[in-house]
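Revision sheet: structure tokens.
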Amino acid sequence: MTYALARPLLFALDPETAHHVTLRSLRFLGRIGLAPTAGRAPAACARELMGLRFPNPVGLAAGLDKNGEYIDTLARLGFGFLEIGTVTPRPQPGNPRPRMFRLRAARAVINRMGFNNVGVDRLVENVQRARYRGVLGINIGKNFDTPLERAADDYVACLRKVYSLASYVTVNISSPNTENLRRLQGAVALDALLATLMAERRALAARHGRSVPLAVKIAPDLDRPQIEAIAASLRRHAVDAVIATNTTVTREGVSGQPHEHEAGGLSGAPLKARATSVVRQLAQALAGTLPVIGVGGIMTGADAREKIAAGASLVQLYTGLVYRGPALVRECVSELCGR
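Predicted:
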């Protein structure tokens, strides 16, 4: 069954239920040899950055597979890399349901999941069981009840646990659904956090014999001085990449839509322009010193091309998959690789 035929059935379900049904169905279809698969991208499609080779520049954004339970299933869809998480040191249920809402006419989603996950130890077990050997990012965060002044402890705990398994690690300081988390993007807090994490990375690199790249994921709700301050901090601490952006707390583009007033982060088509603007400003501020990974509002191959034109080296998808399904991956790869 193609996604176009399945989507009306999935959209008749609660969004969070549909999410789990989709992933379980893809896993089942894969086990019986009927899952959608994508051919290998040509060698010319590969990208080299962070010391890693990406078979193509189109990746899966964090949030779709929070616990690393579907790595092999998602790997069949043609992504050049996968990012799982956000994971926290201890398991936590996240916010009460309902906590995910479709805004169909706007091709958007609002979520207030709240880092619901099974904890880093279970995620590590899932990654160890997976057969996927491509580029795997692991996105880490803090538990909701960890005081902000102790946030670095949670990030360090996760970094230590996932270090040997990750191709790169993303430090999520931009979810709007964990209280006060975005304060870590402030100049003083960010400098302190990055100093701690980079020191820990040096110790882990000496222990494991390899330096795992660190990326930082930022919000779209930043002005130019904030973006420039973040860029300066990333350069100062020699962070390996920046991911722009997470979801937005604004409601631009969804006026009059059902659920527009629900709390949480908005993603999908209405986020595109705001996220692309942040990519462009970051790329200008960084001047090629570290790569930008563009995410937010990519619903077509042309949208992916727009992120690259703004200065991104790679792109990631999530909400676009809700509305377009696996075909979006192939379309974006084709658009960026000319095939």
